[in-house]
Amino acid sequence: MVVIAVSIITRQGKPLLSRQFRDISKDRVTELLSNFQGLVANSSSQHTFVEDEHVRYVYKPFDDYYIILITNRQSNIIQDLDTLKLFAQIMNSYLSSFDEHEIFENAFEILSSFDEVITMGYKENLSMAQINTYLSMESHEEKIQEIIERNKEFEAAEDRKRRAKEISRKEQERKMGIPSMGLDAMRFQTSNDPNLSNAYSSYYSQASPAAQQSYYHTQQKAPAAESPAPLPMESSLGGKGMKLGGARRSGLGAHVAQLHTPARQAVAPVTSSLQVEEPEKTVNNGILVSVKEVVSAQISREGNVESSELKGSLELRVNNQQLAHARLALDSNIDAKDKSFQFKTHPNIDKNLFLTSAIVGLRDQKKAFPFNDQSLAVLRWRKVGAVDDSVLVPLQISSWVSPSESDQGMFDVTFELEMRESYNESLNDLRFALPVFTENVRVNDEFNDLGASIESIDDENGVVVKIETIEPQATATFSLTVEAEYEDALFPVSVLFSNHAAHNSFSGIKVSQVVSSNEESEELPFDAVASLRTEEYTVV
């Protein structure tokens, strides 16, 4: 059996689709189809095939169309009819009304299915179910490429954030008349000591800008120490010296602090304001199960989710030796084989037991969990959201920016916040950090549903706005009027929030029962707590 071509034509002989499986020209196929129309018109046979001196036409009428199989005359007619039947099934699977327009719309899918059935003119031994499977098969290489593209997007977002901060810093430096701290500006100018000059030329000319700046300030302070100038206030109090864990301030930040010390005295330091405070250790009554999750997202100014990721861990704390032989049964709604969550168990956990029964237990049942009241992560998961999918976004944010009508050089920035309906927990200690360093900023009271306030202003983190709490399923708005050179200088906005005392996890993962791993399998009492915090949550 050799199939030359398969075609779909109207009853009037108009060709709609045709697929050639042998080396044959379009004009030749058109000629054969026109001959078919005459053979069918003159045929008085009840069979569904006709022949001429070169080829055989095996056809099937449906509605106002023919589906035609063109084969050689030596082909097995039984096999040809079986192939034609399979082609008819393919047509029925893609078409509902057999309209000409619908045939053209599904032409690519129909012809792709034909290619699966016939290879180089010979029929493959396939069923309709196998054809559908082959056409819908996913590509591993495509998934790898998608992951690579997402990683590139994350890297590009970080680069945009860094560039935005750098541009904002340089604009503020220019406005305040601070000279650029380049190599030429930091050359040693105050000392005539040739040894010092040689030392600078040999080492500091090749050092990093930070080292050059430090050397410059050291040399600037030396002549001041020789003059009988009054001691600063810190000296009379004993001095503060070096502080462990203190904020590192760049040279530009130090200059700005010196220029604006009176104006900034009332402003609280912001170095630690963008760090989520660790909660107090939860009281453990024997067995404490903690679900800790971290969410990251990149949201456009219009509120579209460009990327999102959720990472979580299930931690176990035991402080009673009698309760250390335990197994944790996850909720029945959780599918341990769900590929989207990318579950990963601790090496000492029985992975097969988890995949088959969604139970977290040790491989060796004779062993017990540590009972030193220290948290042990027994299960982790990671889920990446698709573009424009807000499933992994607990707080939806959209922004509106427009030049202020009353103040020149100012922008009105309005943020609309909407909690995800499926997350019935509140979010606490919200921070919105705009990467602009200016004290010319205020919260507009007419658009302030959540009591937003300016928490701090810093040359590193910019303007930080604080909101205490946003309740579940809430929709709210707050607005700022802030000075900026241009709109893009206000972005990206970093967002932080947390909830360390939630009743339910954001992903829905929870432990429904804790039982003993001994033969009795008795149920053990336990307490459960969930938490959620941000890692990289930005509006770009």
TrEMBL record:
GO terms for cellular component: COPI vesicle coat; Golgi membrane. It comes from Lachancea nothofagi CBS 11611. Belongs to the adaptor complexes medium subunit family. Delta-COP subfamily. Residues 211-246 are annotated as: Disordered. GO terms for biological process: endoplasmic reticulum to Golgi vesicle-mediated transport; Golgi localization; protein transport; retrograde vesicle-mediated transport, Golgi to endoplasmic reticulum. CDD domains: AP_delta-COPI_MHD (cd09254), Delta_COP_N (cd14830). This is Coatomer subunit delta. PROSITE patterns: MHD (PS51072).
